[in-house]
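Running co-folding for glutathione.
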Amino acid sequence: MKLELISFKLCPFAQRAIIILNTQKIDFEITYINPMDPPDWFKAISPTGQVPLLKVDDQIVFESSVITEFINDISSTSIHPEDVITKANNRSWIAFSSSIFDDLFGLVTGDEDKFNASKTSLFAKLEKLEKAKGDGTFFNGESFNMIDAALAPIFMRLAWMNEFTDNALSISEFKTLSAWSDAVLAVKEVQTSVIDGIDDVYYSNIEGREGHLSTLLVDEEY
Ligand SMILES: N[C@@H](CCC(=O)N[C@@H](CS)C(=O)NCC(=O)O)C(=O)O
């Protein structure tokens, strides 16, 4: 089975898929496009016009939640918990966490009012995740599971924003979630899920959006 992931370098949804491909040690090729100016061949095969898209031989799988489940399904072992209720619970929290990408978008692009509203919305969700997390290093304990991969792009973007702004979005009030974020970001398969220098690209993206967040940037190294 030949896998080709069609992606965009900063896409957090595609990053979820890459982390699971890395964790499951599945070979794949990656093709980057700019979804704001997609090539014709992409328009011809993408039902939604969005990335990620997974080409499996000549079949198309779309929607990142379906792509990640598909990758796990074709792997020799599952990285979901075995127990069906725990697995359903994890999937619920994965779906819940996907709405956080809207908050991150509001933080990066919004004026001060939008920034503050997005921060309030984000922190209310982080508080719920903090309460939902079980004991141990990762969400379910000591194994890195699908839910940890789902949160990784969120934790990575929050860490960048805090690094660039002198902690404008510090999550230290959430002790459990902060430790979970540190553990997830230390995982090799998470670190290798992005291209070198992507933090610079993210910094430039914040600057270019000219939202309230860009006024809080402090690090001139980027
Ligand atoms: N629900 C989709 C969302 C994917 C998504 O928003 N992708 C962005 C890039 S990160 C995109 O393609 N944006 C261009 C567009 O919406 O036209 C999924 O989970 O796959």
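Result summary
The chain is about 55% helix and 10% strand.
The chain has two domains: 3-73, 84-216.
Job closed.
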